[in-house]
Amino acid sequence: MEKINGTGVSPGIAIVKAFVIKKAEVAVSGILLKGENEVIANVAAFNNAIEVAVNELEVIKLSLAGTDFEILETQIELISDPQIAEDVIEKIQSERKTANDAVIEVIANVVEVFESMDDEYMRARTADIKDIGSRILKHLNNTKTNTARFKPDSIIIADDLSPSDTITMDIKHVNGFATRTGSKTSHAAIIAKAKGIPAVVGCGDSLSTIQNDDVIILDGTSGLLYIDPAEETINEFRLKSEIQKQQSEKLKALKNRPAITTDGKKVMLSANISGAADMDDVHENGGEGIGLFRTELLFMDRTSFPTEDEQFKFYKQAALQSKGKPVIVRTIDIGGDKQLPYFNIPAELNPFLGYRAIRICLDQTDLFITQLKAILRAGVFGDLLIMFPMISNIQEVRAAKNILEKAKEELLAENIPFKANMKVGIMIEIPSAAVTADILAKEVDFFSIGTNDLCQYTLAVDRMNEKITHLYDPFNPGVLRLINNILEQGRKHHIHVGMCGEMAGDPLAALLLLGMGLEEFSMSASSIPTIKNTIINHSEADAKQVYRAVMTMDSSDEITAYLKAQFV
Question: Domain spanning 1-23+146-236 has what CATH number?
Answer without folding.
Answer: 3.50.30.10
